[in-house]
Amino acid sequence: MFIEPLGHAPLVNWFRKLTPKLRTPDEKPLLAADLAACRKHFKRAAFTFFNLTALGAAPFASTRLFTPLFSFLNAVDRGLFHAFPNLSRYAWMVFMDLREPLKYS
Questions:
Q1: Considering its fold, how many domains does the chain have in total?
Q2: What residue numbers bound the domain in which 92 lies?
Q3: Which of 15, 39, 53, 91 is the most buried (most CB within 10 A)?
Q4: pTM for this structure?
Q5: What is the longest distance spanned by two Cα atoms in the chain?
Q6: If we measure between CA atoms, which residue out of 96, 23, 97, 11 comes closest to residue 52?
């Protein structure tokens, strides 16, 4: 189990370009093809997506508004991902639960 960034959100990708020193040179966010590869190599590959609209709370990080706003926007994200599963590719982060690696001969 681990959490990784995703690479399809235009706003997040723009931020990454503006802040290259926040990452190592070989670091890259995961793409849909990477998640598909996980599904190919594990019997169980479950993904939970986070932070689509919740990124809108970032400007309020040092204020009292941050926690309630972030909580509210996370709830909005859960609703959006449930109603429109294809939006999940634009999330910032994915929680990956990979179990039972497939054995190859």
A1: 1
A2: 2-101
A3: 91
A4: 0.84
A5: 56
A6: 11
